Amino acid sequence: MSLDHYYLLGRSGLRVSRLALGTMNFGTGGFHAAYGKTEDEARPILRRYLEAGGNFVDTADFYTAGESETILGNLIAEAKVRDRVVLTTKFTNSVDPGDPNAGGNGRKHMIRAVEASLRRLRTDYIDLFLLHTWDRITPLEEVVRTFDDLTRAGKIRYAGLSDVPAWYAARAQTYAEAHSLVPMVSLQLPYSLIDRAIEQEHVPMGVNLGLGITAWSPLGGGFLTGKYRRADQGLAGEGRLSGTGPAVQSWTDQQWRLLAALESVAGKLGVSMAQVAVNWVATQPGVASAIVGASSAAQLDASVTALDFELPAELRAQLDEASSVPPSSVYRMFTPAYQGWLVSAGVKVSDKPDEYAPAVRNWAPDEQ
Ligand SMILES: NC(=O)c1ccc[n+]([C@@H]2O[C@H](COP(=O)([O-])OP(=O)(O)OC[C@H]3O[C@@H](n4cnc5c(N)ncnc54)[C@H](OP(=O)(O)O)[C@@H]3O)[C@@H](O)[C@H]2O)c1
């Protein structure tokens, strides 16, 4: 499963590595400046990823105030890999707070954003163009139609979504299919052993509607490497999550217990905690690729070798249990415990849904 084994992204013909390289920390400006890297520091990270056979690179227009795209454009041109790389970027976040149309997901901004990204990335096409975040105002029909126009104009090859509710993605995909517009092929979402919220709605939706999930922060921003210690209301240790006081993110007792389970599994396998954490995410159902970040080529070494071993079922089960989140409201009805209780009470709904799976599968268009 090394990076030069490529997988289809969602229901598409686009072949991508199982691990993508995140470049949110390339550049030293804007929102991500506190942990940003200069072009000279970023170069060995991208090189290491490409040498390992990786072909899937992620950025966004607002990362480090546009510097991430600029650096990536320079480094890709320098390495002469533009065509080989599947270049992903995103739009939504405002580049000019004084101008209401300089951000959001409306057609005017989408077209402006694509042109600006093409300039910074020094290319004439984007392989995968993603809506970064639901803006809660633009009609989704406008977004889907603009994706279609941009594809036909040759500006982008594929379209996708990031950080949207599952109902929004489902309706966007259904609208595209119903009107023969280009479909969305991927969905970028937070997913790791410390954040499994997407499993309830987004994962089954993606699997059913052909959206390959690309998981961001698979290491929980570095927490799952095991390098942090508990401090008063925060974390102690070297890295971008360090800090204390009420303003920093709080970490739950379950997350610390999960860390202990992760350390134990890594010890049994003789690999690092980071490798186990990345392996777990990248091989979860519905996940097309995990987007790893790194502050140095040495850090990236741990992640790019994360798929060189198989996570045995019993050890995966230990991690699943330590990181599990209870299903909410209606989803409790589909747990084995609840279904078993229904059957024992004489209420037969579909006690063995797997028996019906072959018939259902015959209807899936990708298996025809
Ligand atoms: N769509 C979205 O809304 C969204 C949001 C966030 C991210 N993303 C994408 O996902 C990418 C990855 O996100 P992320 O950076 O949060 O991912 P991550 O892989 O969870 O965290 C990466 C960070 O962990 C630390 N780290 C990594 N390997 C390590 C090692 N072997 N030893 C010690 N520390 C290590 C480094 O930070 P330190 O050195 O500072 O500790 C590194 O920058 C981003 O670049 C971006 O492309 C998308």
TrEMBL record:
Residues 18-322 form the NADP-dependent oxidoreductase domain. It comes from the Bacteria. Gene3D superfamilies: NADP-dependent oxidoreductase domain. The keyword Oxidoreductase applies. It holds the Pfam family Aldo_ket_red. Transmembrane segments: none annotated. Keywords: Oxidoreductase. PANTHER family: NAD(P)-LINKED OXIDOREDUCTASE SUPERFAMILY PROTEIN (PTHR43364:SF4), NADH-SPECIFIC METHYLGLYOXAL REDUCTASE-RELATED (PTHR43364). This is Aldo/keto reductase. The lineage of its organism: Bacteria, Bacillati, Actinomycetota, Actinomycetes, Streptosporangiales.
